[in-house]
Amino acid sequence: QVQLVESGGGLVQAGGSLRLSCAASGRTFGQYTVGWFRQAPGKEREFVAVRTGSAGSTYYADSAKGRFTISRDNAKNTVYLQMNSLRPEDTAVYYCAARSTGRSTLALVTMMRRNTYDYWGQGTQVTVSS
Prior knowledge:
11 strands; seven-stranded mixed beta sheet; about 130 residues; 1 helix; globular; mainly beta; four-stranded antiparallel beta sheet
């Protein structure tokens, strides 16, 4: 079992930055693919970014490319989402999710699906004011 706890959300002005954290307990992240998703009011939860467990490859939604960076600190067993140049449309609850993948790498289309992941955090609110 893996428990995920997100933190780092808050209120920020457009153009500002936030760093979200996803801390894991119960297992180490080394063999897990970890993704970030977000859900705005009235909308479906959507993919934002993912980092594979073995190779450490990263992929981003088009809306996040060039502005967001996903990274992992093995010593802290934490995955981060650095968000720069934030826009009002980035306002949402952000969730991290994990799936044990060992040394395998899932297809990108699979990593972008919500139902790929077995473990989810409780979410952290990000609000970007204009």
